[in-house]
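Late entry, 4'-deoxy-4'-aminopyridoxal-5'-phosphate complex.
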Amino acid sequence: MTDTTTPARDLMSKFDPLIAERQALIDSGVTDPFAIVMEQVKSPTEAVIKGKDTILLGTYNYMGMTFDPDVVQAGKDALDQFGSGTNGSRMLNGTFRDHVGVEQALRDFYGMSGAIVFSTGYMANLGMISTLAGKGDYVILDADSHASIYDGCKQGVAEIVRFRHNSVEDLDKRLGRLPAEAGKLVVLEGVYSMLGDIAPLKDMVAVAKKHGCMVLVDEAHSMGFFGPNGRGVYEDQGLEGEVDFVVGTFSKSVGTVGGFCVSNHPKFEAIRLACRPYIFTASLPPSVVATAEVSIRKLMHAHNKRAHLWENARTLHNGLTEMGFTLGTKTPDSAVIAVLLDDQEQAVAMWQALLDGGLYVNMARPPATPAGIFLLRCSVCAEHSSAQISTILKMFRAAGQAVGAIG
Ligand code: PMP
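Prediction complete; structure with ligand written out below:
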């Protein structure tokens, strides 16, 4: 008799190597870097982890908006007035006053005619890329693109062409091989978040335009502090009006959750009618869009915060360089400072030593990182005080010496 209760093949068995790898890490006596719990969050830069007061240097809270009193109040008011959720898609019953409000705030922030909000930044890329590039079209993307960009390609039916990370020459070469008349979307990121390096957007956009492509730039890691109006690397490099679509997120500088795309394209609104990750999911809760709207409007005037964020990035980058650490970039190009380590063992040991000392950073490894690199990613916040940055540097020196990463 066949056993009808046991499947012929346990589909979960494909995860055995992952389970074993995680177990080996835990058995080595370290804290699991991918199972951290914030027991309390006291401010944008401080939390309690494992009962210990910890400085946060591994969140994307670049502009420190999560505890801004106006932002928090807007969320509370919306919760009182509109309830806890929308129970539906934007297409049907899920468009509330503040979804419209936050889209207007985005149009004002970017100075563009169109703005569409998605439930996350991941879904904004998934939706925009898969909807824009159809059958017979091409998506041309940087090899180090974020997972959401790759997944947007997989979700769609266009042909995919990758070029070498940040190589204008390779982009040009690959575009030159594609049919001149085909629809082409070049997808770039302003800041690449693993190493913290920025894209040579000016040259890349020029090459893309030369080959008749449309351009989408993901500015997730630059909003609020690149360019005169904080619009991103594209604004910083003088590309206003040359980029067709800008994708962003509320989960970083804005300090809540959600994603968006802005554009000046006259037919942009049609995306709402065709984009599956926009249509077939519930819209963001009213409290979330209300906080996002206030945060975005405040970011338009956050010049002091912006200046302090850059000062923190420079101080941390210079201090770590002087200590002898190898960093992801030679100069402080963004708010991400990546500390490169020799291997997984050293990275985990260093991460653990920092945590034990009261500092949280992100542990990153392949496949999230390019070229098999193990690194500790530091994301600087505008709300880190100068005293905290000094403390952080001391913690890095102690941990780096303890694990032999520096002399
Ligand atoms: N794009 C990039 C470049 C990102 O780094 C991320 C998130 N880390 C996203 C998109 C997705 O954003 P979200 O967290 O809003 O889904």
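The chain has two domains: 28-63+303-403, 69-299. Will revisit in the morning.
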